[in-house]
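Researcher: Here's a chain I'd like modeled. Treat it as a single chain, no partners, no ligands.
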Amino acid sequence: MKYILVLVFLVLSLMAAERKYKEIESYDITNIEDEISKKSMRKWLDEDFGLKPHRANYLLPYGYRNGDYKSYVPTDEYRNTEAELQVSIKLYLGTNLLGFDESYYLAYSHLAFWQIFAESSPFRETNYTPEAFVDFPVIKRETYFNMRSLRLGIAHTSNGQGSNKGVTYADPSQNPGNRSRNVNLIYTELSFQHDTLLTELKFYAPLPGTANDEDNPDIMDYLGYTSIKFNYFLGHHMFTLMARGNFATGYGAVESTYSYPLIDDAYFYTKIFSGYGESLIDYNNDITKFSIGFSFSR
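Model: Modeled as a single isolated chain. Structure tokens:
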């Protein structure tokens, strides 16, 4: 039954992506005299609330990894096949407060790993990332590396689990260990363009005062402080390649994706991940995983 539900969800999502807001055809607002009311109704009918895609939004019903996922509770028996989904949106706040034509945004990303092939189909891990950032455009277009923008931001990522510090268990074997994970980062991101190749170079560091969090004091050893991502467009095809890591420890990760449009705002989407930090709970576990499904933004 759960596989049927996933299939139904995919079909409905694809149908929703293809429709052209038929609600507009059901109402006539052309003769409304109050312009403010008319504008409000138009915004509602268009479903335009200022939210735009931030990262890729996708549903990957099948993902296969090497090895097994770690279980923190004796009753949990995770499979090495699972679904993965991400919802990522941003909200534009305003422009040019400092006189540099800069733009301000709030964003939120929700990444979930769903064990749909296991009994009871639990969500193995969920990561929540609210962030705020400002984009500064490069006014002078003839830069040496074709730099296009500079982004400054702050982000918090958590898996929403509570800390069990100080909790005692009558049966020590039932102690799941501390499942709480989080990291607070400040970052700078530079973007470059060479024809259809877009490059994003990112530098990030723990927010001062949070570098030695008790939940995951060594997390930066695995996430590193630098990442680079290439986005390449070839006709309808889009390829991405991301690499990040810590040069001192030698830990890091690479991720590659491919997408191709199926219908309006819906794409065939595949992803390969290898390394550390696929999710917060697995930040220090080496994982190689292939996933396939659909995305609704790139």
